Prior knowledge:
Chain A is built from 9 helices and 7 strands. By secondary structure, chain A is α+β, with helices and mostly antiparallel strands. Chain A folds into 2 domains: 4-115, Ubiquitin-like (UB roll) (Roll), CATH 3.10.20.30; 118-252, Alpha-helical ferredoxin (Fumarate Reductase Iron-sulfur Protein, Chain B, domain 2, Orthogonal Bundle). In chain A, the strands form 2 sheets. A 5-stranded mixed sheet of chain A has the order 2-1-5-3-4. Chain A has a two-stranded antiparallel ribbon with strand order 6-7. In chain A, helix 4 (147-157) packs antiparallel against helix 6 and helix 6 packs antiparallel against helix 7. Chain A starts with a strand and ends with a helix. Chain B is of the alpha+beta class. Among the domains of chain B are: 240-351, Flavocytochrome C3, Chain A, domain 1 (Alpha-Beta Complex); 425-545, Methane Monooxygenase Hydroxylase, Chain G, domain 1. Chain B has helices at 13-24, 62-72, 79-98, 131-148, 215-221, 252-255, 271-275, 285-298, 318-336, 391-411, 423-440, 448-462, 469-486, 500-524, 542-545; strands at residues 5-9, 28-33, 49-50, 113-115, 122-125, 152-156, 158-165, 171-178, 184-188, 191-194, 227-228, 233-240, 247-248, 259-264, 267-269, 309-312, 345-354, 357-358, 371-373, 547-552, 559-564. In chain B, the strands form 5 sheets. Chain B has a 6-stranded antiparallel sheet. Chain B is globular. At the A-B interface, helix 1, helix 3 and helix 4 of A face helix 1, helix 3, helix 4, strand 13 and helix 9 of B. The structure holds flavin-adenine dinucleotide. The site of flavin-adenine dinucleotide (FAD) has 46 residues of chain B, from helix 1, strand 2, helix 4, strand 7 and helix 5.
Amino acid sequence: MDKFIHFKIKRQDKPDTSPRWEEFKIPYKPNMNVVSSLMEIRKNPVNTKGEKSNPVVWECNCLEEVCGACTMRINGVPRQACSALIDKIYEKTGFGTPIVLEPLTKFPVVRDLMVDRTIMFENLKKVKAWVPVDGSWAIDRGPRFTDREHRWAYQISRCMTCGCCMEACPNVNSKSGFIGPSAISQVRLFNVHPIGSMHKEMRLDALMEKGGLQECGNSQNCKEFCPKEIPLTVNIAAMNKETIKYAIKKWLNK
Amino acid sequence: MSQPKIIVVGGGLAGLMATMKIAEKGIKVDLISLVPVKRSHSVCAQGGVNAALDTKGEGDSTWEHFDDTIYGGDFLANQTPVKNMCESAPGLIYTMDRMGVMFSRTPEGLMDLRRFGGTKNRRTAFSGATTGQQLLYACDEQVRKHEAAGMVTKYENFEFLSAVIDDQGTCRGCIAQDLNTMEIHKFVGDAVILATGGGGMIFGKSTNSVICTANAASAVYQQGVYMSNMEFIQIHPTAMLGDDKTRLMSESARGDGGRVWTYKDGKPWYFLEDWYPAYGNLVPRDIAARAIYKVCIEMGLGVDGKNQVYLDLSHLPSEFLNRRLGGIIEIYEKFHGDDPRKVPMKIFPGVHYFMGGMHTDWNHMTAIPGLFASGECDYMYHGANRLGANSLLSALYSGTVSGPAAAKYVTGLKKLSSEVGSKPFDQEYKRQVEWDEKVKKMHGKENPFQLHEEMGKAMLKNVAIVRYNKNLKENDNILQEMMERWKNINVVDNNAYGNQTVMYTKQLWNMMEMARVITLGALNRNESRGSHYKPEFPDRNDPDFLKTTKAKWTPKGPKFEWEEVDISWIKPRKRVYNVDKEVSKKNG
Ligand SMILES: Cc1cc2nc3c(=O)[nH]c(=O)nc-3n(C[C@H](O)[C@H](O)[C@H](O)COP(=O)(O)OP(=O)(O)OC[C@H]3O[C@@H](n4cnc5c(N)ncnc54)[C@H](O)[C@@H]3O)c2cc1C
């Protein structure tokens, strides 16, 4: 008998319509992943009821888990669809069980599995996540940087702004306005860079504003779901310490 | 008085660098991109970026970098712009370092360097095995700073459809489509820089991101821009074949000690080291790709009888591998399952990079005044074969040329685009709306995704590593048939919002136009040079073909002409890698 991969997909036509579920089955091949499966579906978009449907809309781009585009909820877990291998999923859930695909819930849905993560880029603006160089012209060799610091800073610099940590964090919601773990973690990166650190106060100030560090409820979910295994909770703790020191200093100098 | 404004299309390294340069000059930028710029394809680059920093006591120099690049490109690149690029490289990479790129370090705290293909010196700065990501993020951050200051306005999730050209033939802005609402918009700008990347998707599967369709280049090609050297497609020797894409295993794996082998007579055979003792595993990509092709297809010696050979890291210490190559090891482990620290990886060549692109002058302006091209979408710096780690450099460097050149161009304009009236905008807008309407109503029999897959297969079969004139001719016929079949597409998505199928169908037409340029360019060039290899014409033929190919769009297909190559610095010499490179002779 032919083997099939079964999907249950939450679909939504546009931002202001209500969602619905639709199921698809495609022939099984070894080594497939969720993106390659969605690509198969669009070549012949017919659902399990035999009805013609529209191809599923989702974001994807590099298919190597470095661009962060294809993040969605797969069987309830926020992760990149490209690296979600069907064989691995079925090892856990059993062959042929429906794989549930849903859009991330912390961001507005655009269509189907595609969401609008603009807020994450806005948060990077809020915390001034850049090195304020005088300009992009050549001056001279950059500052020296120890190999030891490079090793942990490099880990933070691999954040793809994918949204897994935002999705996993119970404190990220429209009421709290919490900027989330990734933006906080980025502050630590820029505050260790020799030039970036010259302006660390402006970033610490940003972390002390509404929606900043104080909104973190220390649930520790974020680090479980970071695909790049960035030690988000360690970074948040480090920034907590920094801002406390900074606040005391500010208060003493008043 | 109104102020000039520049439109940059594309937020990879080239587009972001150009944007930065323009904003620094006090000119506002509209930045249009298919995806949030931080997710641009540049993010994929792994191994590193070249600059002759000479911090390893090897006596490296910008001249040696220049000579390696020209030699590696089989003398097809115009030499003066390449020389300028190599001379600017150290300053540029130090600037990126100041901007916070997390380059890997030496014990002394300097940027570390690794060796790449086609060179004898360590010249490649890197951030583990995610260099493109780190460079892109630093540029993204700098542009965000300008955005926060009001100098840059981003239009992400927008697709460039065409240039707006006035009755004088000058570019005055562009037309772009919102990929969510599907609305088509007019953008007024005094210059437009296309920094839209390569087109790996024309081959169906490649190491490129799925947004790399060369759609924008094809659109302006159909409006009068020349395409140059499109027949030169880099096939990367070491990639993992997959159903959805071909995933790259960076050249840095070999730069850091990786070895390529297969079994012969029951024993490991390191064929690159055997055939090319002077460069070994670090021969340029065209040479390595052809060697693997020969071993698998002509000699039938692929591992397990399949088209694959080993890329072996397992003899290197785990700690070293994690630190230097963690990024690619993760990819191989995640997508393949095996651990490259323990067992050799299985690889085969895959389509990777377009050396050719839009023809421009040395300031990156195309034949249409006011329209510039920069980055992988231009044709300028790599000749017939690109050396590894030179394209992050050329993308960045070209942005430092195109940005200021566009700024200079707009400040010299007699009339700004906001003053030329709405007619050219209305005309081009109407053309694009009509095309969009037409495509939305296509209810034929062909599925666009399937048709694309078929095209990719044909291109891979006929226009990749080894090319025969008979197959190239046949491929062009296939493409023309497919263009007929395209007219019978069924746009399977009926939703008016976020309709990716309509966009894909439009892109597919443009990919087919470009596929013909590649195929016929290859057919015309009866020689072997760099990545372009014809067994019927195995040698380089300078008297007839030391020339830049230029293709012009006509309704009947591309029309070709040739242009002299600038060889004013180094005299062309035979390119071989089994022995050391001869010392370059200066020309003139
Ligand atoms: C897997 C991989 C590894 C690589 N490793 C290296 C390496 O180690 N060293 C090296 O030097 N090079 C490497 N390269 C090559 C290098 O990454 C690219 O050549 C380079 O990043 C291209 O940059 P770019 O700015 O020209 O284009 P891209 O980064 O491709 O950016 C193109 C931009 O244009 C936008 N765009 C495209 N079309 C449109 C449109 N129609 N409308 C609106 N926007 C549009 C996109 O959204 C994107 O923002 C690698 C390439 C790959 C595939």
